[in-house]
Backbone:
């Protein structure tokens, strides 16, 4: 998103009050945990006035605890957001219509964040939020860290390892997800059972036992993911991936890639 586009958007929705800007930049409230994680890398608390309450939950956040502690949080209640007097609210399409109307009537610019499925989409999202916050240098620095992490995860000539990423409630992400892209770039290939399923579909324990992968990568606490029956899979390596590495893209990508590289290197020794 160009700065000119942001300016047009602000003009269309009403000019922001000059006393609610930090260093001449627009003040922001984030209601989406993924925009929380990106914007916290770009903007200080005097500009990022609040992050979503999801990011204050240790089980749901994509942010390090020390970073979360720097920012206040807010619910999605319109009156609470309006009281903060932000210039921009970053949200998503799930924002309730009455809340959306109330914020728009207050002259607040709304920016909807989409779900990303590729690293390129994530880089574009970082660029868009950096433009929105007028923090292009910080956005470029974050994008550079993401690109460097991507370039470090090259498995070379080693044969890919068949992996099943099995998540909370027995779901898989399928081949068109960001997680699948990170796995494949890190030297893994999706096990056949996961390739046949789409995003968020359920894979029963019985099917895992009938068609076991080389690597069973579990991410969650559901009992099936740690069922004693899995102990019979003598030819399957089992590892865990923190679910918080899968919730969002942006700054989470380098941490996820580092963990996948660690797991993949175990097959190269």
Residues:
């Amino acid at each position: 998103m160009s700065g000119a586009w942001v300016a047009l958007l602000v003009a269309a929705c009403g000019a922001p009050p000059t006393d609610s800007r930090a260093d001449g930049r627009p003040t922001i409230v984030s209601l989406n945990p993924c925009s929380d994680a990106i914007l916290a890398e770009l903007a200080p608390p005097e500009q990022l006035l609040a992050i979503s309450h999801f990011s204050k939950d240790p089980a749901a956040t994509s942010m390090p605890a020390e970073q979360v502690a720097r920012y206040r949080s807010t619910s999605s209640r319109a009156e609470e957001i309006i009281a903060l007097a932000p210039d921009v609210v970053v949200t998503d399409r799930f924002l309730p219509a009455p809340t959306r109307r109330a914020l728009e009537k207050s002259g607040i610019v709304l920016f909807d964040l989409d779900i990303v499925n590729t690293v390129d989409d994530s880089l574009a999202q970082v660029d868009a939020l950096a433009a929105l916050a007028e923090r292009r240098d910080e956005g470029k620095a974050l994008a550079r860290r993401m690109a460097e992490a991507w370039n470090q995860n090259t498995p070379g000539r080693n044969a890919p390892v068949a992996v099943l990423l099995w998540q909370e409630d027995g779901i898989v992400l399928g081949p068109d997800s960001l997680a699948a892209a990170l796995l494949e770039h890190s030297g893994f290939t999706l096990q056949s059972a996961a390739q046949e399923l789409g995003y968020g579909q359920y894979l029963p324990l019985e099917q895992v036992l009938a068609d076991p992968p080389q690597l069973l990568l579990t991410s969650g606490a559901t009992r099936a993911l740690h069922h004693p029956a899995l102990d019979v899979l003598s030819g399957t390596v089992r590892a865990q991936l923190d679910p918080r590495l899968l919730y969002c893209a942006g700054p989470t990508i380098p941490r996820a890639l580092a963990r996948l590289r660690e797991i993949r290197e175990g097959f190269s020794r």
About this structure: Residues 1-20 have pLDDT under 50 and may be disordered. Residues 156-265 form a domain with the Rossmann fold fold (CATH 3.40.50.1980).
